[in-house]
Design a protein that fits this description.
Length: 441
């Protein structure tokens, strides 16, 4: 198995597999049955599905771990996340072993093949909309990531995220529990270009790129006919390779049976435009089958797939829950004095700033790290604006971890090594007073 995912991604277009759930349903998975359990109870069926995707031309297999996390399968439970991940990654690795052994002389057999830990949402709402905290989410995802490292996965594929804060937590878990492992993160957009909580494409790209993912993009929810319209803007905004995995159209229920209307040939025709727009990883999500991936490979058979990726520099943008902004553009910045971090006081100040047309909030004068962390929570609950923290590394660390977007760190003079490391860990932007023409004195 070729384990150098980053090298392959820099050199060529790669192909994800397609849907797993619908394939398991076709194999006998019943309504209400957890699909991730089949890696333990029916490993040969799961392995056979992976094999069919490899034979169709997939380069990246997503292990049957979409619903596996430490919240759903805690360490105290009868079945724990680690056991499911180990079994699922094992099924995918066995499929790759068999395929490469059987096709050693074939063109597809010589292509690179990888096994990804598939990380889906926890099913819980992240703060401020729900009670799930950043640390709880990171730990829940970390239970799967840690097991995937031991099982020999090649990358982490964070997918189907509706909340940028949860996507951020999953990426943090990958970095913290598997340092150095490649990460691809895809989120869900409506056909209008918004995530469920209103995050637009530039904001999502800014947050994920700043965290240091190896690829980013979108999957699920839309068919290729609608998803393709978002890809040019996504590719223009992203400084890393873009991944696109649509559904096989929007599901319809006929006679109590859910079906997906976009067949393999129609899917492939629409995906040509996704390829032409610059996507570097193409695949399928709900309702897609090995035939969809086979048709996609066939329609692109005459296209050049071994074009080197040309990375772009990461712009110094900030992002809140909804939008990304360039602080150098003279955005109106409102200063909020944090003090002891009283949530009511911070909320009142933030709402006043929002009413006055603020585009960025500068949180300053915190009495303690706890006060700044509380202020970040209050500010994000009150409004979706990007944040800049005016604090040293020790004071800012916990608060920066809570920032759901891409925050800024204000420094006067040269940034200290701890502050630089903190910014790198959480994807923050280090800014000086000269970088903020809209900042009050």
């Amino acid at each position: 198995m070729n384990a150098d995912f980053r090298k392959a991604l820099s050199e060529r277009v790669l192909f994800f597999d397609g849907g797993m759930g619908t394939q398991l349903q076709a194999a006998g998975l019943t309504s209400g049955e957890a699909p991730e359990l089949w890696s333990l109870t029916h490993p040969e069926i799961v392995t056979a599905i992976h094999l069919r995707y490899l034979e169709a031309g997939a380069n990246i297999l997503c292990a049957d771990t979409f619903g596996v996390n430490g919240l759903k399968y805690p360490a105290s439970g009868a079945v724990i996340a680690g056991a499911l991940v180990t079994a699922a990654v094992g099924c995918a690795k066995e499929a790759v072993r068999r395929f490469e052994a059987a096709h050693a002389g074939d063109a597809l057999g010589k292509e690179p093949h990888f096994v990804a830990l598939d990380v889906g949402p926890t099913g819980k709402l992240m703060a401020p909309f729900g009670s799930l905290t950043t640390d709880q989410a990171v730990d829940a995802f970390g239970a799967s990531v840690q097991a995937a490292v031991a099982a020999g996965a090649d990358l982490v594929a964070v997918e189907t995220m509706n909340d940028i804060a949860e996507a951020r937590a999953a990426v943090l878990a990958a970095h913290e529990y598997a340092p150095g492992m490649p990460v691809c993160a895809t989120v869900v957009f409506s056909d209008k270009g918004w995530m469920l909580n209103g995050t637009d494409v530039p904001a999502a790209v800014t947050v994920l790129s700043a965290l240091g993912v190896d690829a980013l993009g979108l999957n699920c929810s839309l068919g290729p006919d609608k998803m393709k319209r978002l890809v040019p803007g996504l590719c223009a905004a992203s400084c890393v390779p873009v991944a696109v995995s649509p559904n096989a159209g929007l599901p319809v229920t006929v006679g109590g049976v859910t079906t997906y209307p976009c067949g393999p040939d129609a899917f492939a025709r629409e995906m040509v435009e996704v390829f032409d727009a610059g996507a570097r990883i193409l695949g399928g999500c709900c309702g897609t089958t090995p035939d969809h991936i086979r048709a996609l490979r066939a329609i692109l058979a005459d296209r050049e797939l071994t074009v080197p990726f040309e990375p772009k520099s990461l712009p110094a943008l900030l992002a809140g829950r909804l939008h990304a902004v360039d602080p150098a553009d003279g955005c109106q910045i409102s200063r909020v004095s944090v003090g002891d971090g009283d949530p009511d006081d911070v909320t009142e100040a933030v709402l006043d700033a929002d009413d006055d047309g603020a585009e960025i909030l500068l949180l300053a004068d915190a009495d303690s790290p706890e006060a700044l962390a509380a202020a970040v929570e209050a500010a994000q609950s009150a409004c979706p604006l990007p944040l800049i923290l005016d604090a040293d590394a020790d004071t800012a660390a916990d608060a920066l971890r809570l920032c759901s977007g891409r925050a800024g760190l204000l420094v006067r003079g040269d940034a200290s090594a701890p502050l630089t490391a903190l910014a790198r860990r959480y994807g923050a932007v280090i800014l000086g007073p000269d970088d903020l023409p809209g900042c009050p004195d």
